[in-house]
Amino acid sequence: MTEAIKIRVENLFFSYRNRLILKDVNVNFAENAITALTGPSGVGKSTFLMTLNRLWENVSDADMSGAVEIKLQGRFRDVYAPAMPVTELRKMVAMVFQAPNPLPMSIHKNIAFPLKLAGERNRKLIEHKVEHALRMANLWDEVKDRLNDDARSLSGGQQQRLCIARALTLEPEVLLLDEPTSSLDQASMAAIEELLVGLKDRLTILLVSHYLEQVSRISDHIVTFDDSTVVS
Ligand SMILES: Nc1ncnc2c1ncn2[C@@H]1O[C@H](COP(=O)(O)OP(=O)(O)OP(=O)(O)O)[C@@H](O)[C@H]1O
């Protein structure tokens, strides 16, 4: 790989209730690129994503060994080091899930939520960042006149772009997406693909996708999982 590396994974093993799911995964991911993670169902792609932002730590009877290093704020950091608080990590390594999961509140509050959680109280700054995140997610023009509407009144595709906007609010360096378009129609899928391509100048994107056409349309690299590990 000649591009700069953003994520280094070495000797990663993962199990649920002593059942080995990932076995000796060794892989690097390029910076400012879209890498698609593909492979058969149940092979551990979603689990792998969760090792990058430590989301699996919320799952009981799960166990992991190995090293994950991500270049954050300009230097490689051990994601599992005691000096890396998980809340800080998840600000920098954000995640979007398969089904859109807007919070039961207004469009504006959905986007402002991570800022408020992070302790931001400056209303002007919050307004600015909400607009910026919605613009980055190509949603601003569609919602700017209805920011106080319940987010659940948006279409499925708009809800997923809202979730991407929410993930972008704290300006992460890495965006993990787990089959983000699988519940959406073609037009919404196309809107999200366009949005991801537009984002890679500022972010490193890892995308689990089953759609081979999508993978060939937007990914710069493909990492294939099979037999509990990365095979290509
Ligand atoms: N919380 C859990 N507890 C126990 N086993 C789990 C848990 N989550 C996932 N698994 C199992 O781990 C294996 C890998 O699941 P994972 O969802 O990571 O695969 P995947 O490649 O992303 O699959 P898909 O493409 O279908 O989403 C599966 O056999 C799954 O049943």
UniProtKB/TrEMBL annotation:
Would you tell me the Gene Ontology cellular component terms?
membrane
Lineage of the source organism? Bacteria, Pseudomonadati, Thermodesulfobacteriota, Desulfuromonadia, Desulfuromonadales
- Taxonomically, the superkingdom here is Bacteria
Species name for this entry?
A: Syntrophotalea acetylenica (Pelobacter acetylenicus)
Q: What are the alphabetically sorted keywords of the record?
A: ATP-binding, Nucleotide-binding, Phosphate transport, Transport
Q: Specify whether Phosphoprotein is a keyword of the entry.
A: no
Q: Which residues form a coiled coil?
A: none
Please identify the protein, giving its name as recorded: Phosphate ABC transporter ATP-binding protein
> Mind listing the GO molecular function terms for this protein?
ATP binding; ATP hydrolysis activity; phosphate transmembrane transporter activity
Q: Name one Pfam family in it.
A: ABC_tran
> Which first-to-last residue range defines the signal peptide?
none
**Record-annotated ABC transporter domain positions:** 7-231
